[in-house]
């Protein structure tokens, strides 16, 4: 025990750098573990606390009846049903994060009594005559603080409200479900209802017993509505809502876990290297102790114990420190998910990290120290091993490379295992940078890749025209407009499938779409074909037949392929226009307008609105909607990846500090002799650096070859957690080469800075030692 603490006091600097490395690893790993363990749990706790319904269906007010509540209540598995009134419509929010953002919105009367789908005011102020309570999501991301004005446009009418408070509820929360809830005081709601009664809906909220299958209850509900000829405008279940709301937080947690895994592996290799070099430098002292009568077991114990203590203290400190950062990360993720939670101390994560990290550190130390068993005291003091034979492969006298070249080669091969370890660490760090750089490239540099992965069709503008003749006239003019690249009849409709409601993407010809979301099979091309979403893919094979219905009309379609839709959690299908008309008489009244590069969507829409001011034309600047949405996502991911790059820089510095410090310590006498022979500090610094920099250069550029097949797999694993089956992320060779060059340059610059301690070596002092 005395020897162990003596080692601890004598090598404080060494153990501090070792502790710093484990501290950093513990912080990152604990952050990812706690967020992974607690985010989903916190969501469920809030869901239950606010008594949120498992199923919510909205139907037109005019189709509601007095008996419907009782009939829904009789569905097996339903324990409670509650009816609320609302206004369901497209509402444009002005100046949302600097733009006008149209959202599908349900306006509620906040004074309605609720047993289900409760909400709570997180902030509130004095209620004015025209006040509104908005979700935290709109308040924080949209930039609407307490007391500010928020203006909605519904159709051609404007409604301005004062933000009287922010609410937390678990029915909608954020716009991940493509619908948001807004709560108005009674008087403000009644005023809106008088103006927008045509958009009024009845909402039925269902509490389902834990022993019942939610999908079965949902199917029975849709069948009941279909049999009564009721067209549901919206059906949402808690499972798909949770997936949609937590999509962004799940993606960020997955990035954290991937980064934490890479950092942890790097730290293990670095720990092994650090321990091995330390024990090599201590071999003389261990030999002296053995000559004095200490047993090999006691000497090994004296070396292992300090590492165990340092590892335990560093890991516990790192875990505890991570709780200072966790509230900020939790708040950051909560805004994206539309609910708030405070992370709590996780003893399971602590035990897992401490036991694993400490165990690995102790095991590595023992494996490195056990060679003292085979050393006799004389060999240890001489730093030789009589059981091995050594050869001089690079003779200085006969070298054709000159003395400097021969010395560099000697150093490279004399430190073979060190260079192998450095090679592995470089590959690990380059993989971390390549993963981060690729994500940043596809979100900030090529945002279309990110948007095409998470979205469906991406037009410049969407024109909605209710009157058929006006639709044909506008369509004809759009096709002849030189600013327009393409015009497509494309709409999103609601249909019913075997397991409940589905969102149908309808267009005459899917080959003209700009974003093919088919990940297996092909798009439908006839009136009897359908492509189904990933949520149904597990139950139906390509070539099977599936029945779809709408308003009591049904038709059986042949499945031609599988499509992805992250925003709709895979509960989607594709139908040709002719196929959709098999179950619906509704005419398509939406046009997707794709503009040529450089054309202003804002000015283009303004021109058409002026030309058709007296028509039923409604427009959506989808280009602006995309930019707003991508800006929010890009900002979040850029912050996370910025942290990753800073972390990578720190890890590079730490690796080089350990390598250079151990090299100088081990070769101190040798370097002093070279100085005495007339070598300059500059020559010795470059000789030392070029002993390992070639290994870093080789590893960095070989990592590019490794990254090309591996990064797409890692991207798919991360994106697959949010329901992505087909991603459009590109691995840019140019970005990888730039990262490799930057990595090598950074290593060289840091190495020059850290090698300056060679200047402090004085030959005379070495002689006196």
From TrEMBL:
Family stated for the protein in its record: Belongs to the ABC-4 integral membrane protein family.
Membrane topology: Multi-pass membrane protein
Keyword annotations from UniProtKB, A to Z: Cell membrane, Membrane, Transmembrane, Transmembrane helix
Sample GO molecular function, one term: transmembrane transporter activity
Protein name: Efflux ABC transporter, permease protein
Organism: Streptococcus sobrinus W1703
Pfam families found in the cross-reference section: FtsX (PF02687)
GO CC terms, sorted: plasma membrane
Domain ABC3 transporter permease C-terminal: start-end pairs: 258-377, 643-761
Residue stretches spanning the membrane: 15-37, 247-270, 307-335, 347-369, 420-441, 636-664, 684-711, 731-754
Subcellular location: Cell membrane
């Amino acid at each position: 025990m005395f020897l162990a603490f003596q080692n601890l006091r004598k090598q404080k600097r060494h153990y501090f750098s070792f502790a710093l490395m484990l501290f950093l690893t513990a912080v990152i790993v604990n952050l990812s573990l706690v967020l992974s363990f607690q985010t989903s749990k916190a969501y469920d706790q809030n869901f239950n606390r606010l008594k949120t319904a498992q199923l919510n269906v909205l139907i037109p007010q005019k189709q509601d009846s007095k008996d419907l509540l009782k009939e829904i209540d009789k569905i097996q598995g339903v324990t409670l049903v509650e009816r609320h009134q609302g206004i369901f419509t497209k509402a444009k929010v002005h100046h949302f994060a600097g733009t006008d953002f149209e959202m599908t919105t349900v306006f509620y009367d906040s004074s309605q009594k609720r047993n289900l789908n409760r909400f709570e005011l997180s902030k509130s102020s004095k209620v004015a005559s025209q006040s509104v309570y908005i979700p935290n999501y709109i308040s924080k991301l949209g930039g609407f603080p307490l007391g500010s004005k928020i203006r909605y446009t519904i159709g051609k009418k404007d409604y301005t409200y004062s933000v009287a408070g922010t609410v937390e509820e678990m029915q909608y929360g954020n716009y991940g479900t493509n619908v948001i809830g807004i709560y108005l005081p009674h008087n403000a709601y009644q005023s809106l209802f008088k103006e927008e009664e045509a958009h009024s809906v009845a909402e039925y909220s269902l509490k389902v017993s834990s022993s019942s299958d939610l999908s079965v209850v949902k199917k029975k509900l849709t069948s009941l509505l279909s049999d009564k000829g009721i067209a549901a405008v919206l059906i949402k279940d808690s499972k798909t809502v949770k997936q949609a709301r937590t999509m962004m937080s799940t993606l960020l947690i997955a990035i954290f876990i991937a980064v934490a895994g890479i950092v942890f592996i790097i730290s293990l290799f670095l720990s092994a290297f650090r321990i091995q070099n330390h024990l090599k430098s201590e071999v003389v002292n261990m030999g002296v102790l053995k000559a004095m009568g200490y047993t090999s077991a006691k000497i090994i114990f004296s070396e292992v114990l300090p590492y165990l203590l340092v590892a335990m203290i560093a890991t516990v400190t790192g875990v505890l420190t991570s709780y200072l950062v966790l509230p900020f990360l939790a708040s950051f993720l909560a805004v994206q998910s539309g609910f708030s939670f405070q992370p709590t101390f996780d003893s399971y994560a602590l035990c897992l990290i401490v036991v694993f990290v400490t165990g690995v550190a102790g095991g590595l130390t023992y494996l490195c120290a056990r060679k003292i068993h085979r050393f006799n005291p004389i060999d240890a003091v001489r730093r030789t091993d009589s059981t091995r034979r050594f050869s001089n492969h690079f003779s200085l006298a006969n070298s054709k490379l000159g003395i400097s070249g021969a010395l560099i080669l000697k150093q490279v091969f004399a430190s073979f295992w060190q260079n192998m370890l450095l090679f592995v660490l470089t590959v690990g760090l380059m993989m971390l940078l390549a993963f981060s750089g690729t994500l940043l490239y596809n979100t900030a540099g090529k945002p279309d890749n990110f948007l095409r992965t998470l979205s469906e069709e991406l037009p410049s503008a969407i024109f909605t025209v209710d009157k058929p003749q006006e639709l044909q006239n506008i369509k004809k003019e759009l096709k002849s407009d030189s600013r327009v690249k393409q015009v497509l009849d494309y709409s999103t409709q609601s249909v019913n499938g075997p397991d409940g409601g589905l969102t149908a993407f309808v267009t005459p010809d899917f080959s003209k779409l700009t974003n093919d979301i088919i990940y297996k099979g092909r798009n439908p091309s006839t009136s009897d074909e359908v492509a189904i979403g990933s949520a149904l893919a597990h139950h139906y094979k390509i070539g099977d037949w599936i029945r779809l219905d709408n308003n009591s009309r049904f038709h059986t379609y042949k499945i031609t392929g599988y499509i992805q839709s992250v925003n709709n959690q895979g509960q989607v299908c594709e139908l040709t226009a002719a196929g959709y008309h098999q179950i619906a008489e509704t005419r398509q009244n939406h046009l997707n307008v794709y503009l040529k590069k450089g054309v202003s969507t804002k000015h283009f829409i303004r021109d058409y609105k002026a030309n058709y001011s007296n028509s039923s034309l409604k427009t959506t600047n989808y280009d602006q909607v995309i930019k707003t949405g991508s800006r929010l996502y890009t900002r979040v991911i850029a912050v996370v990846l910025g942290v990753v790059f800073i972390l990578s820089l720190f890890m590079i510095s730490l690796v080089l500090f350990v390598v250079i410090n151990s090299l100088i310590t081990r070769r101190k006498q040798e370097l002093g002799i070279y100085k005495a022979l007339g070598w300059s500090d500059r020559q010795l610094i470059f000789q030392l650096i070029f002993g390992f920099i070639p290994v870093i250069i080789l590893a960095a550029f070989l990592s590019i070859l490794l990254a090309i097949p591996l990064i797409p797999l890692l991207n798919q694993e991360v994106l697959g957690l949010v329901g992505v089956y087909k991603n459009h992320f590109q691995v840019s060779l140019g970005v990888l080469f730039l990262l490799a060059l930057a990595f090598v340059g950074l290593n060289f610059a840091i190495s020059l800075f850290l090698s300056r301690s060679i200047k402090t070596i004085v030959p005379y002092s070495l002689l006196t030692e």
